[in-house]
Design goal:
heterodimer; A: 288 residues; mainly alpha; MetI-like fold; two-stranded antiparallel sheet; 12 helices; 3% strand; B: 263 residues; alpha/beta; six-stranded mixed sheet; four-stranded antiparallel sheet; 12 strands
Chain lengths: 288, 263
């Protein structure tokens, strides 16, 4: 009776063997298909991979993604606070915003912002119903880039509102009391105590949003913005090398998303400090 | 740390409650409660659950708004300022400033889970009082030594036992150098074997002359550490007096019944 299970062998079921072999076969098949199929035209892919127009398109996609996400996150945080506040008109405003911007297709919103000058030829600054203090032509102010940012940022804000709100709701309400108890103002307790704890729940769904956004920027080609997909389309419309140029776009989209994954897991690690799953084990030491 | 003799309370009230009323909808939690706490006094508030003890300390800390009456700290009206002939509710910055004078220890500890033990204690001094990091760190280490947790500085709250967490919470409150410490049933959420280590810390503070209001179910602790005991029932102060005398020979039938039930 001196067995010790620490020396026991791992159990490997027959199903795992079968599944493992099947997966290996599928992987090989896909690789074989990618490498040997001449219609991918890999030399053409390589030729355009670092072409100037493509890199410019990639730059636009990245820039739009980053700025639209920042705008969306700020708007989402403000709208989430408005939704949770006791100030009724603020709640109504936030609800109306969510209703309108989540309820309509992004494509329509983009076209709307791009054609803002049709509805509103001049933008003016001044008191309501009074002569304006300053005036600008809408077409000069709302460039395609700004129209894209407005469209993407405002739509993103509507989704981020719910993500931020869920994060804030996940924080123990007693934390607000504890922050007050050390004399913090509401603003300071939000940024020092509540938001850092909510981030743990905000980051994973936000990661999804960033990835959707990186791909949704492809929509801006309808308003004459030269994003990654559009720059690829411009070339294959001319050369008819559709598949290899789409592979160029796929390559860059996957690069961007790999980068975002790495960023997300770093952020998640940062904001989960103090929580059991990654905390070092308790080391019992004698009380001094 | 010198230890002035127990019950050396001066005459000037630090904390003063005048006819405080608190309602939740149609339920009245506090019926015109008046109470003076003098410098160096340790006031234990006892009573059955639902008697308004916790509500009382939460009102003193302005975590709950009172509906009538007034609360003064060092003669300053809490939560309202006089504007001409009227009293007007203060803004959140003024209320936050007043709260710095009152340390609060909660039943559920409520440490900041995303900060280490020493960061929890440094947060108030650095963010609210504007202390330098080195000063805040020294002070945190001193206080954590005082509550017997010098070996847990870098731990996260989740890695500590309930008793240890509550001692950190006491250090966190003390780090703000409050005029008065308020305790809302500090041992009610603890396993029985951990109650002692927290009560020892509170008793040490009492001996050191800290002005304190302690809501508690621990009658033995109230007898040992408190200078005065207040017995509440149904939102009213039913009996109060010097702790040992009152607990040994209650004047009211209701306190006698309560004590016979909990002891």
């Amino acid at each position: 009776m001196d067995d010790d299970i620490s020396q026991a062998l791992h159990r490997t079921g027959p199903l795992r063997w079968i599944a493992g072999i099947a997966l290996a076969c599928i992987t090989l098949q896909v690789l074989f298909f990618l490498v040997t199929n001449p219609r991918f035209e890999w030399p053409v892919v390589l030729k355009y991979l670092f072409a100037e127009n493509i890199l410019q398109g990639l730059g636009t996609t990245l820039l739009l993604t980053v700025i639209a996400m920042v705008v969306g996150t700020v708007i989402g945080t403000v709208a989430a606070l408005a939704l949770m506040s006791e100030f009724k008109p603020g709640r109504w405003a936030a609800q109306t915003y969510l209703w309108a911007f989540r309820g309509t297709p992004l494509l329509i919103q983009l076209i709307f912002w791009y054609n803002l000058a049709y509805l509103l030829p001049k933008l003016s600054l001044g008191l309501p119903f009074m002569a304006p203090v300053a005036e600008w032509s809408t077409n000069e102010v709302v460039t395609p880039f700004l129209a894209a940012l407005l469209g993407l940022g405002l739509a993103e804000g509507a989704y981020m509102t719910e993500i931020v709100r869920a994060g804030l709701l996940s924080v123990d309400p007693r934390q607000y009391d504890a922050a007050k108890a050390i004399g913090m103002t509401p603003t300071r307790s939000f940024f020092r105590i509540v938001l850092p704890q909510a981030m743990r729940f905000i980051i994973p769904p936000t990661g999804n949003q960033v990835i959707s956004m990186a791909k949704a920027t492809a929509l801006v080609s309808v308003i004459a913005m030269n994003d990654l997909l559009h720059s690829v389309q411009l070339i294959y419309n001319r050369t008819y090398e559709i598949v290899p140029l789409l592979m160029v776009a796929v390559f860059w989209y996957l690069c961007v998303i790999t980068l975002l994954y790495a960023l997300q897991s770093r952020l998640e690690r940062h904001y989960s400090r103090g929580h059991r799953r990654n905390a070092e084990p308790v080391i019992e030491t004698a009380v001094a | 740390m010198q230890t002035p003799p127990l019950t050396q309370a001066s005459q000037r009230p630090v904390l003063s409650l005048r006819n405080v009323v608190k309602r939740y909808g149609s339920f009245q939690a506090l019926h015109s409660v008046s109470l003076d706490v003098r410098e160096g006094e340790v006031v234990a508030i006892i009573g059955p659950s639902g008697s308004g003890k916790s509500t009382l300390v939460r009102c003193i800390h302005q975590l709950e708004a009172i509906d009538a009456g007034a609360i003064y700290l060092d003669g300053e009206l809490l939560g309202y300022k006089r504007v001409g002939d009227h009293l007007r509710a203060m803004g959140s910055a003024d209320i936050a400033r007043q709260r710095q004078q009152l340390g609060m220890v909660f039943q559920q500890f409520v440490l900041f889970p995303h900060m280490t033990v020493e960061e929890n204690v440094m947060e108030g001094p650095m963010q609210v009082l504007g202390d330098k990091r080195s000063d805040a760190l020294n002070r945190a280490h001193h206080l954590l030594k005082r509550v017997g947790l010098s070996d847990k500085l870098q731990s996260y709250p989740q890695q500590l036992s309930g008793g240890q967490q509550q001692r950190v919470a006491i250090a966190r409150a003390l780090a703000m150098r409050p005029r008065v410490m308020l305790f809302d049933e500090p041992t009610s959420a603890l396993d029985p074997e951990l109650v002692g280590e927290v009560l020892n810390v509170v008793t040490d503070l009492a001996r050191a002359g800290k002005t304190m209001v302690v809501v508690t179910h621990e009658i033995a602790f109230a007898r040992e550490a408190a200078t005065r005991v207040i017995f509440m029932e149904a939102g009213r102060i039913v009996e109060e007096g010097e702790a040992r005398v009152t607990l040994a020979s209650p004047k009211t039938e209701r306190l006698r019944t309560f004590l016979s039930r909990v002891m």
